[in-house]
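Appendix B. Raw example, untouched.
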Amino acid sequence: MGEGGSPSTMDLMRSEPMQLARIIIPMESSHRTISYLGDLGLFQFKDLNTGKSPFQRTFAAQIKRCGEMARKLRFFRDQMMKAGLFVSSWPSYGSEIGLDELEGKLGELEAELVEMNANTEKLQCAYNELLEYKLVLQKAGEFFHHAQSNATSQQREYGDRLLEGSMDSPLLLEQEMTTDISKQVKLGFVSGLVPRDKSVAFERILFRATRGNVFLKQDVVQQAVCDPVLGDKVEKNVFVVFYSGERAKNKVLKICDAFGANRYPFTDDIGKRHQMITEVSGKLSELKTTIDVGVLHWSTVVQSIANQYDQWNSLVKKEKSIYHTLNTLSFDVTKKCLVAEGWCPVFATSQIQKVLQKATVDSNSQVGAILEILHSKESPPTYFRTNKFTSAFQEIVDAYGVAKYREANPGLYTIVTFPFLFAVMFGDWGHGICLFLATLFLIIREKKYSSQKLGDIMEMAFGGRYVIIMMSIFSIYTGFIYNEFFSMPFELFGRSAYDCRDPSCEDATTIGMIKVRDTYPFGVDPIWHGTRSELPFLNSLKMKMSILLGVAQMNLGIILSYYNAKFFKNDINIWYQFVPQMIFLNSLFGYLSLLIIVKWCTGSQADLYHILIYMFLSPMDDLGDNQLFWGQKYLQILLLLSALVAVPWMLIPKPLLLKKQHEERHQGQTYAPLHGLDENIENERDYESHGGHEEFEFSEVLVHQLIHTIEFVLGSVSNTASYLRLWALSLAHSELSSVFYEKVLVLSWGFNSVVILIIGIIVFVFATVGVLLVMETLSAFLHALRLHWVEFQNKFYEGDGYKFDPFSFALVAEEDD
């Protein structure tokens, strides 16, 4: 599509004019040139090596190097997180460092950290083993000490009985006492620690495997101990298993291994046991000192890395992105230059040339880079220059679809219409002020929050802070119109125009009030609040207002389709799309809007439903009491005929004219001129392969136009009805606010109790914030979004373009690892 018309003076009305450019870069200055273009961030490179795999490209080795350095930096980041150091809290400092020097430094630091981690892990494992060993020596020693005490007492008791010669003494006691020690059976034992959650199963399996021929003694370790193998804190029991025979021993050892029980050697000699405890305690003290020194050295190394992490990470990311971009360039035939092609805005041409000259000078190249503009039939990318205020509104539009190149951008109008339609549904100046203050807090602290990682919901709210503050400002405005402050009216702009007939106001609810002053100057008169006719009056007002706003916005959409057609010099769309659409929409719903305004101005009691329905059913009948102005009947007949004529006007001529236009365009095109040497042949082939000379299918065009016509005719009715959501949500918001005020705040006030009043205030605040300021805000936001995407944008917006995605270091820095 060509660039018709003159460039718009508004940045957001139409996307920036783009051009396809070719840059021929000498090899010696290629790296610096791409780096400077990345700093500029206004050139989108095209991949000229699509036929090559990533491993076949020129700079694959450099990308692999950068990838390896990025892996080392991720390792350093894990170590920093382990040390409790946060990357964002440490400013980057230090002198500039080259990539080769950085690669060597990262390798040395990684090797040092890996070695320190391995040594620390070994020392910690040995420390944990010695700690467990000490526990076994202490607990198992208690077992043996207790058993020996019991045996000594029993032996003394048996000796006393033997001396007394009691008849109750066992007959063989003397023989047992004098048995040869060498003939006694010697029991073996295994000691260690077993996880507490496995101790019951451990005991059961030991009993079954040895048929009960073992004796197990366990004791609980009060504090969790660090397991030498797993490295985690585990609750354990100290155990001693007594057995008899080699077979039983083998079974016990296998069961210990199966249950992950750590076994430790133990002696029943008290002297040796005390000596072993002393030795283990000494080794534990030495290991603790060694580990502390190692951890201190590790912390110092990690701290030094943290101080320069941002600088190193930024350099690696930049270098990797530069080599990725260099891989999209192609070599010329001499293999001495690189050729780049891509899109850039027209206004950036001089900036790009300055950057190329600077790169040539800084790299001491004898040959400068050459920039040339190419001509292409390929559709350029879409680029809007936005700031932090307008970018959020543009994102709302782009979420539906990116604008086609140079078509009218709804984002410009969305800045006003989106928050206004939201406010129509959210109109309450008390709620608007709360929303305004909350968003103002985010804007005041935006520098702090922009550098932090926020939660998902908070991130969305912060990103759309300027949208929300516009929504709150418009909500305050519509709240003044509705005269609602947390559902309560105020006489802000003067006193009410109405008053009671007498001082007692006895007949105010039956006969009504009388007008004693001028009409309330701004918004709804506060006297309406609380009356029987409040709901019918506000329903009528808001419903008619919704139709007026909807018809106005749909007309704006159709008018923008005219400016699109004019800009692209498409006369067919002007005469056979814009004109009949304007006639059809305004013959029906434009006329309804006129009737609403006339009824408001004249105070007529005419039934607009009756007028519109019988305009179709009985257009020739007299209107009677429903006549609002002279000649209304004949105007309705004329408008109805215009709407009927507009339908075939949209349907039939456009496909026929497109067919005729196609035939005229392709007459005499059997032979085509040769392409000039400076033209981008690849782009021409691309264009032809994507349907540059497709056959014209009249049936497809006719069916497409038929669908488009039916969609517009039916959509005119459904879209107008869809705008009634403005009335429905406004009513719901007002009623919810009124319920919370009357049934919570006023009701709690009536109990004359401070406690109930405080509870009522707390409930009212939470209900207002949770329901009205969060859920209702989200609901009104989504409905306003639908009105823009469906009812407004489908009148003119194609949205089949693609974003301008320049090579920019600013964008690279935002990407996550």
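End of appendix B.
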